[in-house]
Amino acid sequence: MSFLCLSAFDRWACTSQSVRIRQLSSIRVAKRVFPIPFILWSLVNIPVLVYCDLVPPTFACWFTNDLFMRIGTLFLSPILTVLLPLIVLILCGLLTYRNIRRVTHVRQQPNQNRLSNWEQQMTRMMLTQTLLNIFCTLPRAIFVIYTIFTIDESATRTFDQLSIILLVDSITVSIISVNFGSSFYIFLLSSPRLRQMIQMYLKRLFNLRHNQVDPTNILLTAPAFTVRQTTKVIGQPTVENEPF
């Protein structure tokens, strides 16, 4: 979810009318921000390695410290993994939509059509991804809220109740995992330009282009041979008779 939030922030920055905000959407800034999620989640998960273990009777991985269990279930799990990413995605999506609507069109008609198509594709891709993220994150948010309100009853639950809760937990985790592999398919289905580029790339990769022979004006010139006809004039000698 961290990189989905960063990509949503990048879309908002690159569509902003402010030059200072657009400068945030650059490779230089991306190289600096890229290690932050790894460092953040590494620091967050260090206590998990210390205060989590296989707990009977289900032998599932759970907290062994009551204080860290409350911190994890009340703050880390609901806010960092569910609520905060969802809020960031919704806000960045709405701000991106507002920036796209504020884009000024160039007066030339071809540029207007190209910009309008780009605007429609970006809006469609952004809204589709935001709605899918909300749909996939909402079951996990409901389960986390239920876990928070029933945290005091965890010690008195039966084996069947724990099994049902673990099953629902696994299902919600599987649903929220759809967010990580859905971006490509959303962009592919909602962007005709991306489909054309992929189609051209696949044709070039597998040599599926049809060979066409274009007619060219070829001037065929044959060598000109000149035949000279020579006429031989045979002159007969004339004999003059001289008088005796």
UniProtKB/TrEMBL annotation:
<protein>
    <recommendedName>
        <fullName>G-protein coupled receptors family 1 profile domain-containing protein</fullName>
    </recommendedName>
</protein>
<dbReference type="InterPro" id="IPR017452">
    <property type="entry name" value="GPCR_Rhodpsn_7TM"/>
</dbReference>
<feature type="transmembrane region" description="Helical">
    <location>
        <begin position="33"/>
        <end position="51"/>
    </location>
</feature>
<dbReference type="GO" id="GO:0016020">
    <property type="term" value="C:membrane"/>
</dbReference>
<feature type="transmembrane region" description="Helical">
    <location>
        <begin position="131"/>
        <end position="151"/>
    </location>
</feature>
<feature type="domain" description="G-protein coupled receptors family 1 profile">
    <location>
        <begin position="1"/>
        <end position="187"/>
    </location>
</feature>
<dbReference type="InterPro" id="IPR000276">
    <property type="entry name" value="GPCR_Rhodpsn"/>
</dbReference>
<keyword id="KW-1133">Transmembrane helix</keyword>
<keyword id="KW-0812">Transmembrane</keyword>
<feature type="transmembrane region" description="Helical">
    <location>
        <begin position="71"/>
        <end position="97"/>
    </location>
</feature>
<dbReference type="GO" id="GO:0004930">
    <property type="term" value="F:G protein-coupled receptor activity"/>
</dbReference>
<dbReference type="InterPro" id="IPR052954">
    <property type="entry name" value="GPCR-Ligand_Int"/>
</dbReference>
<dbReference type="Pfam" id="PF00001">
    <property type="entry name" value="7tm_1"/>
</dbReference>
<feature type="transmembrane region" description="Helical">
    <location>
        <begin position="163"/>
        <end position="188"/>
    </location>
</feature>
<keyword id="KW-0472">Membrane</keyword>
